[in-house]
Design goal:
Layout (H helix, E strand, L loop, with lengths): L11 H6 L24 E9 L3 E10 L2 E7 L11 E10 L7 E3 L7 E13 L3 H7 L1 E8 L3 E8 L10 E6 L11 H7 L20 E2 L9 E5 L9 E5 L4 E8 L2 E6 L10 H8 L5 E9 L9 H9 L7 E10 L2 E2 L5 H10 L7 E3 L3 E2 L2 H10 L4 E6 L7 E10 L2 E11 L10 E7 L5 E7 L5 H12 L9 E3 L9 E2 L5 E6 L1 E2 L5 E2 L2 E5 L20 E3 L39 E4 L2 E4 L4 E3 L2 E2 H15 L8 E5 L9 E3 L11 E5 L2 E5 L3 H9 L2 E6 L12 E8 L5 H17 L5 E4 L5 E6 L6 H18 L4 E2 L11 E4 L9 E2 L15 E2 L18 H7 L46
Parallel strand pairs: 11-21, 16-18, 44-45
Antiparallel strand pairs: 1-2, 1-6, 2-3, 3-4, 4-9, 5-6, 6-7, 7-8, 8-9, 10-17, 12-19, 12-20, 13-14, 13-15, 15-16, 16-17, 20-21, 22-23, 22-26, 22-27, 23-24, 25-31, 27-30, 28-29, 32-33, 34-35, 36-37, 36-40, 38-39, 40-46, 41-43, 41-45, 42-43, 42-47
């Protein structure tokens, strides 16, 4: 036991000094207060997802009008073997026990705070003496934590800062093996909310008196290519789960799927959580999801969790409220319904409030795609709730992800069991069934066995007059009744209306097959009707099917459209099979040409690509078709391309030339790299400043700007290198010793960019707003963060001309520089002729980020708190 350290001030004075109450909604106390004489002191545990400190649990005990507070990294546990480090922090006011919400960026403890547990506590020994001695024993009476606990101060190590304690469970009837915070959260409901609020008037404008409806058809979203413009729209994250409507009637809960199935018995933990809401009657609309460690919803994981009967591990995101305590809210505007919903309760445990962004739908979609999400849902802010599909709700996706009707299956090959592939289709608006192709990847062994059992029970003839186009349908297909629905992720549509690079995500038990309705991917493609033949097997090649043409093409002659593979449809390059090597990626430049480029340039390109986290841009139909930005492989990329993640940020990676060939095979044109190696992904060894000119900026001005950035970096003792981007800008690249983490590196880059923009506001801009960029150069410092990327050296761009991001010497950075001269065809020849590497010594430089003392950071004029470096030295003369 150590002696108490009195140098650490844990008073309310410290609490107030660390917070700006004009910005944060945290309570600002005036005087300590008590809960009242004779009242047991309270305790509270708050789950705190802090941006800088990371996820932790704040453990607080009321004493003498304040909350003694500790930050517990892994959270409290009911297992006495779990000794949790608890950092003693400043006392908090009693009002903080009721605080939940978001602490804004830039404020102390920025992040989200939610109540995880609360109740009362009884000290076993004298609390003041125990605090002074460094040993507290007490009994908790909470919803999740109960029984005896101990807090013991740890002996400090030499030069250790902070006051660390150990929090652990005592031996009693409340102990439980394996009862860590996450297990408790999944299995024990959160603290019960307050009693239902008595409402005198309507909860929102337009609400009408009415009974709780017994059934409800949900409002559905229509697929849109682009997000709508304007402030009249709210945008929410598109979640990948099961849509549910939940009815609450005086403690009784019913959980209903979108097609009317009662799942209350299947989701008992969700029903218990909803029963905690402070309402007498309510109708909630939301999505049940399973969240991965990075916070992204996963439909396959949702299915696996439900199959295991572990619904307490799931989350229900509520995005609409249709009825509340005798008031029908469906006539109210969406924005008013969500205001009532948000204030309904503290959203903890399994229940989450689905927040939204007003306006800026395009920016939100871009951010959703950057994070690897499925897309967004855009909703008219002032519209009432309207059942069925309409244009008041729009879904805008990042990737192709659809539900399809299961039509049949092909036998497995090799050691695989169950089935080789599912074959799927969809209905059009006229009720006709279309064949959409096969889905051969994404299955676990258990899922293959389960699906085969379902399919064998549904064996049938080929669907009557099923429409199809393109290659002949596989004759080995075993057809089934069109009753099952599968969710599929795929790379896009072929010209004949077949899905490409498809992967199975799971079975949709919440949708009926007849609900899978969409327009054909290519309405102009000719389709034939495949008529029934023998039971179970597919069509024979000698069958002469009846020809059925879509009514919109009555004058086009009837024929079967069959695509024939060109000669030489495969090639083996670098030990990797390249299919369709003659397919054009750029006009006149094929996949074979791209593979040849990588073979010629590999020795120069691989140091910046191999064993480094990557994101890729795929163009399966060439640069004129769809582009896909990809950080995950979802299990259907070639084996030479690895999938991994660091601190929740996903990435792809390769080891050598075979990886470049595999990327070529999947038409990955652009390769964007992290500024860190795979071996140490959380500590950057490369910083990139991207100079991106706005409208009206000549390239000669970009050259001058790059030289200015170089000189300013030299003034800080940092050597830098230059690279064309394959576009209209330049990269200034700085190698560093990988000691700082991403937050430190990003803070330095931010300060550096702000400095130049303040000293040269007519030239530089450190923000991404296009409205401000006309005539100026964006000094983009956001390439330097965890998971952020920049196009790597020697990588081509998906742009006309097949330009390449090329390392150049500073002597080449002059007014004569033409970035369009560096192309897929010219760069190998340039490299072969070079006598010296333009980036000679790049990795040999051992340079560290300068330590910028506080006195060298000044506020921006006008009161902004953006960081600005005050340079102590004059820039060196240009070499």
């Amino acid at each position: 036991m150590s002696e108490p350290r009195t140098s650490r001030d844990t008073s309310i004075r410290t609490y107030k000094a660390k917070r700006n109450f004009a910005v944060t909604e945290e309570p600002a106390p005036e005087l300590p207060r008590s809960t009242g004489a004779g009242t047991a002191p309270i305790f509270v545990v708050q789950k705190h997802a802090a941006h800088r400190a990371g996820l932790h649990w704040d453990f607080r005990l009321e004493h003498n009008g304040v909350l003694w507070s500790w930050a517990v990294r892994k959270g409290p546990s009911l297992d006495p073997r779990d000794k949790r480090i608890a950092a003693h922090v400043e006392d908090h006011p009693l009002e903080y026990a009721d605080f939940q919400g978001t602490i804004p960026d830039g404020q102390y403890g920025a992040g989200t705070v939610e109540t995880w547990d609360r109740g009362t506590w009884e000290p076993v020994n004298d609390p003041d003496a125990g605090m002074a001695k460094g040993e507290l024993t007490f009994v908790l009476h909470g919803a999740r934590l109960s029984g005896r606990f101990h807090l013991v101060r740890m002996k400090p190590k030499p030069r250790q800062r902070g006051d660390n304690w150990l929090l652990f469970k005592g031996h009693d009837a409340g102990e439980r093996a394996g009862g860590d915070a996450l297990a408790i959260e999944r299995e024990i409901p959160p603290p019960r909310a307050a009693a239902a609020i008595k409402r005198e008037g309507p909860p929102a404008p337009g609400a009408k008196r009415g009974k709780l409806p017994q059934s409800q058809t949900p409002q559905l979203a229509t697929l849109a290519e682009k997000p709508p413009d304007g402030p009249d729209w709210l945008s929410e994250i598109k979640l990948d789960g099961y849509r549910l409507l939940i009815f609450v009637d005086h403690g009784k809960v019913r959980v209903i799927t979108r097609n009317g199935l009662d799942w209350t018995d299947r989701l008992p933990a969700l029903a218990r959580s909803v029963a905690q809401l402070p309402v007498e009657a309510a109708l909630l609309d939301g999505e049940l999801v399973s969240l991965l460690d990075n916070g992204v919803s996963s439909f396959p994981d949702l299915q696996a969790t439900l199959s295991a009967g572990q619904d307490s591990r799931l989350y229900f995101y509520v995005f609409d409220l249709l009825h509340l305590d005798g008031w029908d809210l469906r006539p109210c505007s969406l924005v008013d319904r969500k205001l009532v919903l948000q204030s309904l309760t503290a959203w903890t445990g399994m229940l989450r409030y689905s927040d939204h962004q007003k306006g800026e739908s395009a920016a939100m979609q871009k951010e959703a795609c950057r994070l690897g999400l499925e897309g967004i849902i855009c909703k008219q802010a002032d519209a009432p709730y309207q059942s069925g599909r309409g244009h008041g709700w729009l879904k805008v996706k990042c990737t192709y992800r659809e539900e399809f009707v299961v039509l049949g299956w092909t036998p497995p090959h090799g050691s695989r069991a169950g089935l080789g592939a599912l074959h799927v289709g969809y209905y059009d608006n006229e009720g006709r069934l279309h064949y959409a192709g096969g889905v051969g990847t994404g299955y676990s062994a258990a899922e293959l066995e389960r699906l085969r059992g379902l399919l064998d029970k549904r064996s049938a003839d080929r669907p009557a007059e099923m429409l199809a186009a393109g290659d002949p349908i596989d004759p080995t297909i075993h057809w089934v009744r069109p009753e099952l629905v599968a969710e599929v992720e795929f790379g896009g549509w072929s010209g004949a209306g077949r899905i490409r690079h498809a992967a199975y995500l799971g079975q949709r038990e919440d949708k009926a097959a007849r609900e899978v309705v969409r327009e054909p991917a290519d309405p102009e493609a000719e389709r034939i009707a495949v008529t029934p033949n023998t039971r179970g097997a597919g069509a024979t090649r000698t069958a002469r099917p009846k020809i059925v043409m879509p009514p919109r093409q009555p004058t086009r002659p009837s024929r079967i459209v069959t695509a024939r593979a060109p000669k030489g449809s495969e090639a083996s390059i670098g030990g990797v099979k390249i299919t369709h090597p003659e397919k054009e990626l750029w006009p006149g430049i094929t996949k074979r040409d791209l593979a040849g480029y990588w073979q010629a340039i590999a020795d120069f390109a691989l140091p910046g690509l191999a064993h480094r986290p990557l994101a890729i841009v795929r163009c399966p139909e060439g640069i004129g078709g769809e582009h896909f930005f990809q950080k995950r492989g979802h299990g259907h990329l070639p084996q030479q391309i690895r999938e991994a993640e660091a601190a929740g940020s996903p990435y792809l990676a390769i080891d050598g030339l075979d990886g470049l060939m595999a990327l070529t095979q999947v038409s990955a044109i652009e390769l964007h790299a992290w500024g860190a190696p795979e071996s140490n992904p959380l500590h950057p060894d490369t910083l990139v400043f991207d100079l991106d000119p706005g409208e009206g900026v000549a390239f000669t001005e970009v050259v001058k700007a790059a030289q200015e950035v170089r000189e300013r970096l030299q003034a800080l003792g940092l050597a830098s290198f230059c690279r064309t981007t394959g576009g209209k800008g330049l990269h200034v690249v700085v190698p560093i010793t990988p000691k700082p983490d991403w937050d430190e590196a990003k803070a330095f880059c931010h300060a550096f960019a702000e400095t130049l923009s303040q000293e040269h506001p007519e030239q530089f801009l450190p923000t991404l707003k296009k409205v401000d960029r006309k005539g100026r150069i964006l000094l983009d410092w956001l390439r330097n963060g965890l998971g952020a990327t920049a196009v790597a050296s020697f990588c081509p761009r998906a742009r006309p001309g097949a330009t390449v991001a090329t390392p150049i010497a500073w002597a080449e950075v002059t007014a004569k520089l033409d970035p369009s001269a560096f192309t897929l065809r010219s760069v190998p020849e340039r490299v072969a002729k070079l006598r010296k590497d333009p980036w000679d010594g790049f990795r040999e430089l051992a340079q560290s980020l300068p330590d910028i003392p506080r006195e060298r950071v000044k506020p921006v004029p006008g009161g902004s708190k953006r960081p600005v470096i005050v340079f102590a030295r004059k820039p060196k003369k240009r070499a």
